Amino acid sequence: MTPAPLATRLGNPSGPLFFPVTAYGTDGTLDLDTYRLHVRRGVEAGAAAVFACCGTGEFHALTPEEFEACVRAAVEAAEGRVPVVAGAGYGTKLAVHWAGLARRAGADGLLAMPPYLVRAGQEGLLRHYRELAAATALPVIVYQRDNAVFTPASVVELARTDGIIGLKDGHGDLDLLQRTVSAVRTEAPGDLLYFNGLPTAELTQLAYRGIGVTLYSSAVFCFLPEVALACHQALRTGDRATVDRLLDGFYRPFVELRDQSPGYAVSLVKAGVRLRGLDVGEVRPPLHEPSGDHVEQLARLIERGLALLEEAQ
Question: Are 64 and 97 in contact (CB under 8 A)?
């Protein structure tokens, strides 16, 4: 049986969207066996899709050879049960190269990161993503954040571009996003997917759902899938009491800990995976490891999150 198109498979996910960390050995090289195990466990826990080698997966720190090997390992571990989306980024030519590596490794789609370093105007951004979409057979989700923030009119043009199926918002301006959703609905009606791509997206997902954005990335799923799944289910079913309990007892304190240092959105997640028993190694520079005190706080938060689930039973 031919798998459904990526947009269809992502449109109404049964579980969180999983952004696995990339595993390294003690010598700092890739540990693909551990990475496959990490991905496999996530799929078996209920992930609806695997986004390999993206922000949480340290896309910025991988060589092309490592990137292709990781994407292929994720595809092998997923075994077709869920789609695998790979990161792509840097300048246009390099993004196209990464897209080719991702397709060769068996990925089902691309998450297109912002262009490297430069702060471009809307015309240049549109050209970048159009050229990427035209150069690959893989469907593209555009990641809006940092130096790639779009006007509503630009997103209308992205929505009209063959091969672009979604916009992941890591910018967090809900007024802008609401105007964007309205503009696309009015001027380019169709099936463009929208994702909440803020770090620890569960904390803001009630607000995003208010403007119709039901898809979100979950880094917490990497190390605490039980809590991430419970939150996802509560959001889907409108169980506000459970959502509020998890936000107040786990997600808000976790975000406050995450905000103690730049880069913790990745390194704290990796520390969480290690605390749950899977040694995925440390982050690569320029990211740094959490302090011992912060790791201890994270361990207590993990215990608190699991206790919240028990209290609800």
Answer: yes
